Amino acid sequence: MTTSLPTSAPDDHTRCAWCANVPEFLPYHDREWGFPVADDVRLFEKLSLEAFQSGLSWRTILNKREAFRQAFDHFDFHKVARYGEAEVTRLLADAGIVRHRGKIEAVIHNAARAVEMQQAHGSLAAYFWRHEPTPEQLATQLPQPLTASQIEASVKLSKDLKRLGWKFVGPTTVFAFMQAMGLVNDHARDCVTRAAVAQARQAFVVPR
């Protein structure tokens, strides 16, 4: 999400401009986007959905999110890692999701990498939260919210994920993941949700 100016939603509260005039974005923006996440399945789901979004709009993916969850065993990566050609064929026939073989196979491939990551680091959360940028780094790399498509931390995380064998994890995709999962509070300064996210981040216990 890169639109910088805040905007007033139908309830007259100021929010990030990307959720303007899209009713289904409001609950996602107000209750999910930017709030810190330590659940491994949710982290894997979001990175997978960001991969599917490549070349598409988030509105398309969000509207299909429940169908994706049903199709991919609710993104239980231990189950997805065991998918074979039969599951790929099933997914390619599922009109409820984005039927792109390369992206489907990448999610299955990444599920196996997620299992490896969990074994190596104890949890996906422990690995990903190691890449949280410091306030000092954000002050120079992201002086104004919602003005960048990537930052140094997302470039570094992208490179490390690729080194570990993950696919569809470019720095822009990874930054969108970091924004959504709360590693960065990128709500607009005047956004009604920014303070709630800041409070949630302050209370959040970073996984180790």
From TrEMBL:
GO terms for molecular function: DNA-3-methyladenine glycosylase activity; metal ion binding. The keyword Ligase does not apply. Zn(2+) binds at C16, H29, H187, C191. Keywords: Metal-binding, Zinc. Coiled coil: none annotated. InterPro entries: Adenine_glyco, DNA-3mA_glycosylase, DNA_glycosylase. Pfam families: Adenine_glyco. Gene3D superfamilies: Hypothetical protein, domain 2. This is 3-methyladenine DNA glycosylase.
